[in-house]
Amino acid sequence: MIQELKLGMAKAGRGLHSLIWSRRAQKAKLMVIGRNVSDGLIAKLVIYFLLTVVAYLYLQPILYMISTMLKPLADMYDPTVRWIPRQATFENIAKAFEGLQYPKALLVTSAIAVSCSIMQVAVCSMTGYALARLAVPLRAVFIALIILTFVIPPQVIIIPLYVIFSKLGLLNTIFVFLVPATLGQGVKSALFILIFMQFFRSQPPSLEEAAKLDGASTFRLFAGIMLPLARSACLVVFLFSFIWYWNLYYEPSMFLTKGFTPLSIRLDMLEEILNPTLLGNTRTIVNPITEGTKMAAAFMIILPPILIFMVLQKWFVSGIERTGIVE
Amino acid sequence: MDAKQKKRAELRYHGSRYGTGLLFMLPWLIGFCSFVLVPVGWSLFMSFNKVQVSVGGFKYDYIGLENFRDAFLKDNEFPVQLITYFQQMLLMVPIIVLFALFISLMLNQRFPGRFLYRALFFLPVIFATGQVLSELFTQEVGEIPFIDQYNLEPLVAEYVGQQFAEPVMSVLGNAVLILWYSGVQILIFVAGFQTISPTIYEAVRIDGATPWDSFWKITLPATVPFISLNILYTIIDLFTFPLNPVIAHIRENMFKVDTGYGYASALAWIYFAFIFVLIAIVLGLFGRNMKKRRARS
Q1: Do B150 and B246 belong together in one domain?
Q2: Which of A164, A241, B124, B253 is most buried when burial is the number of CB atoms within 10 A of its CB?
């Protein structure tokens, strides 16, 4: 009995099998399922669906930010208004513009981000090149030290740095960031050095040999040939460095608290400016009166880097793949 | 040429060769000494002292390990915060890395419009740091909608225990913002997949492997180094995470009169030791794993 059943099932299975594998069916199957996972129609639809859902969840806070920014106060208290305000208002943006001292703070932030990023590209590429191609004693030790600088939490060295900067009279000036960046100790410099090292290692050495035979000095060789070759790596490093300096909060909150304040610090002060009576612990309070303004401020802070990224997006993503950061 | 002269010539040769290399390294070397070595040494020194700010500068009183002992015995906040942070990290690191792996696997497929999606998933890198993020954290907009809908809180408490429930809920409550920390990781994974040669996939397909097989047998093993890289990067990236309670505590103690810089340094060093052990464990796990594979092949 069981034997028979098994036999029958096997027969049916074979029938089904041949049906599926008949040529026409195969073609249809190829179209729907595809040869690779990604080729078929079903797979593509699934991917689109999943990516869109995740992307929506992912960007929801930004949408919330924009919607809150445009809401007038009445809509903030109204629970029926969720995403689209009854009447868009630009009052919050104007308030945030004033509270942030936007033009000045923007200037400060961009000055820090641009100058430090340029220095980081220059210095990290030099260091990376030396480690990749030049004769350096104790190379392995240096590389280990570079990785170590990446692993040390900023909390460990922030106190001595504060004292050093205050002794040098650099607090509340641009130099608290520019000097370390010039000396290869900026934000995530270690990562950038490793990126450049990896990139220069992957270049064929014949180019340098030819230039050397023609009598180029090492520095000329570096500045004239190797650096232009590393254009994509330079762009990637510059943009990452720019973004990370732009968003830097922990260090500026220690070093730049008076006068020369970037946007991120001004955002921190915004609550007190908007609401002078509320002293002390303002952090944990969600205050509907100031929420719209704060969201407007946050949006104004992230707007410039987003615009830059939109313009440079194509070069950026392909540059990352081309530099072989990860190998 | 006698031996001495030869040696000198050799030295000179090496000197000039090393000279250019060191010249290129010079900025970094100066920076390393002044902004890493000195601060690290100084902060280590401070952690063994009671530091008082007086008119002429600092006054150091050597007290040995007392700062470290106090951190665990006298301070009732610090050990708790450290444990909380550890629990959060234990949750966040796998979430971030798995999410990045999942998304990058999909972004790696060929379909029209994938550049748009890649840009979209990279977007949080631009603003997912610093003050903007902590502003969003206080608004608690990063919640995944279904947590409230299905009232997950008692469920979580039941399954993982009261003690774990709090960090679990705080992570779940800000899940979206935590996932924002996966931008760079997605990039690393996508670039990592490019290193796998497409001919391998073709070969196994001819041998009759299903896509499912080829994911487990080829893609995943080749991705192991990138997974470990991403775990390390995530741990490091979370140093200055806005929800990190340890940062706030260290800063508070810095400006307190009765604790001061010495105690704050000790706290920072305990934190560092803790992170270092974590990194060493990750490296050890993945390092051994990779060695085994290399030996086998």
Answers
A1: yes
A2: A241
User: Do B34 and B135 lie in a common domain?
Assistant: no
Task: Give contacts of B 29-68 with A, CB under 8 A.
Answer: 30-32, 34-36, 38-40, 42-43, 46, 58
* Radius of gyration of the CA atoms of chain B, in A: 25
Check whether domain A99-323 has CATH 1.10.3720.10, yes or no: yes
Under 8 Å between Cβ of B240 and A250: yes
Q: What is the mean pLDDT of each run of 10 residues along chain A (327 residues)?
A: 62 59 62 58 82 83 82 73 74 83 90 94 93 87 89 84 87 90 89 88 84 83 87 87 86 83 81 62 58 84 86 73 56
Could you tell me the CATH number of the domain that includes residue B187?
1.10.3720.10
Two structure tokens written together for A280: 């002390």
Q: What token pair was written down for B199?
A: 């001919």
Using CA atoms, how far residue B126 sits from A247, A294, B183, in Å, is 8, 18, 9
Structure tokens at B75: 């301070």
Nearest to A249 among B122, B131, B239 (CB): B131
Query: 240-269 in B: which are within 8 Å (CB) of A?
Result: 240, 242, 246-247, 250, 254, 261, 264-265, 268-269
What is the span of the domain harbouring residue B96?
Answer: 68-296
Question: In chain A, where are the structural domains located?
Answer: 99-323
Judging contacts by C-beta atoms under 8 Å, the chain A residues touching residue B49 are none
**3 state SS of A19:** helix
Whether residue B253 sits in one domain with residue B209: yes
Say if the Cβ atoms of B127 and A295 lie within 8 Å.
Answer: no
ipTM above 0.90, yes or no: no
B24 and B165: one domain? no
B14 and B104 fall within a common domain? no
Other residues' Cβ atoms within 10 Å of the Cβ of residue B230:
28
Any domain includes B129: yes
Residues B26, B143, single domain; the answer is no
Tell me how many domains chain B contains: 2
